[in-house]
Amino acid sequence: MTRRAVVRGIGHYLPERIVPNSEFEKTLETSDEWIRSRSGIERRHFAAEGQTTSDMAARAARAALEDAGLAVDQIDAIVVATSTADLTFPSAATMVQAELGMTQGFAFDVQAVCAGFVFALANANALILSGQADRVVVIGAETFSRLMDWSDRGTCVLFGDGAGALVLEAGDGVGSTEDRGILACDLNSDGRHRDILYVDGGVSTHSTGHLRMQGKEVFRHAVEKLAATAHTALEKIGLSGADVDWIVPHQANLRIIKGTAQRMGVPMERVVVTVQDHGNTSAASIPLALSVGKARGQIKTNDLVVVEAIGGGLAWGSVVLRW
Ligand code: UT7
């Protein structure tokens, strides 16, 4: 028997307010045409005033628990991937724990920016494989709208808010790539590139700050590193792009998504794309895409799924799982 971390449920939450590209034409030297053609984004959701990351995360978690048919007292741990927690501390995860009425187990945040969900998934997998938890709710949740410089057209048109959650449960496999559950992970970071995507504020410096990005530089790293990490993770278990049913990439830019799929030799018909509707929701983008992909009928039980993401740090990685 081989212990595996298997997906038991999924859900998401998107705030009510939908902002189309045309909205930015009123205040910035930009156009719907530019945003669509350069990024693939058509609209994004923004959290309501006063709405927090933990509020959205808890809603996504409830949806995932319902999908899993599990009650909150059956959960051992909550891991939230976020760079936009409600407060400096405590963690968003403990706030979600309280909001769900969960009084057992443990909860903590993971911060790897847009790659956060991949890092959280790998951590939750390790908790399950080591026997420290049997059921973990893994959440990606962000309110990146709070980090925008609304006068910077190179960034503020790209991001959105939302949350997605996955319930992982310990299961038994036979140790082959036919097992359901997480089959391989690959995590990377390189802090030498910290200046190409960052927020210019924080607790030990000053104020909350705003997101700053050298878009072209990040783009260049993204296509190369995303294809490489997916290849590395697949290679660990003797698989290749040809074996993949679905790539569920971080949703930052349609051109990056296409470039990565092409390098992996996977046609776009086997890629879940939600960037047009959500924009870049950082750590929330992959669980949102997994949830929407399942609801659309794209991702089915036993499909081989690769999730891959890159973001500030730079930090990047991928997870291969059989759904
Ligand atoms: O989630 C973390 C990972 N993040 C990413 O993966 C984002 C990676 N980068 C990107 O997605 C793309 O680089 C962008 C969408 C940000 C930009 O696309 P690009 O094709 O790299 O454009 P650019 O930055 O080279 O800008 C081209 C031109 C510039 O004008 P000049 O200097 O050529 O005259 C920009 O000033 O487009 C201008 N520009 C805009 N024009 C209209 C930049 N933003 C806008 C805008 N509307 N919103």
Count of discrete alpha- or pi-helical segments spanning 4 or more residues: 9
* Structure ligands: oxa(dethia)-CoA
Distance between the amino and carboxyl termini? 19 Å
Q: Please give the CATH architecture of the largest domain.
A: 3-Layer(aba) Sandwich
Unreliable spans are: none
Write structural notes for this entry:
By secondary structure, the protein is an alpha/beta fold. It folds into two domains: 172 residues, Thiolase/Chalcone synthase (Peroxisomal Thiolase, Chain A, domain 1, 3-Layer(aba) Sandwich); 142 residues, Thiolase/Chalcone synthase (Peroxisomal Thiolase, Chain A, domain 1). It is 31% helix and 27% strand. It contains nine helices and 13 strands. The strands form four sheets. It has a five-stranded mixed β-sheet, sandwiched between helices. A hairpin with a 3-residue loop joins strand 12 and strand 13. Helix 3 crosses helix 4. It is globular. The two termini are 19 Å apart. The relative contact order is 0.19. Oxa(dethia)-CoA binds next to helix 2, helix 6 and strand 12. The site of oxa(dethia)-CoA has 20 residues, from helix 2, helix 6 and strand 12.
